[in-house]
Amino acid sequence: MRDVDVRGLDVVVTDLHRRLGDGLLATDIWDRRTGWQLASHNTQPEAVALLNQLTEQIDRTLAGGGHPTLGDYLILDLDDDHVVVLMIHGELVHALILDAAAIDLEVLYGVALPLAMSAVAEAATRGVGPGASAQDS
Description:
Elements: H1 6-20, E1 24-31, E2 37-41, H2 45-64, E3 73-77, E4 82-89, E5 92-99, H3 105-126
Antiparallel strand pairs: 1-2, 1-5, 3-4, 4-5
Helix pairs in contact: 1-3
């Protein structure tokens, strides 16, 4: 995996927690090919593994059927007012597990997600070299 600004990813996680409060049940950012977690809040390793498999399976199924593959995000509406948002940034995937009843959806969709997508994309392309890269974390 190429260098990734892991400190920048930590800032994304902290900012999401600040904006979404207790409605953010968990968030993880990981390398799509390896499943290696790079940043998290209330990490959910089992969910990361399952969501990574799901993302890959959806992409393979779409491509195999001659359809475009996943774009920038995927939203799963679950029972009990839970929502999973998967944001895809090339080699990185960022998952948010949310309590929809405890968050302001306007803040989520209008502010938090666009800022997080932009910041993760920037961290993924910025790479800060040895000492702060994903390989050295």
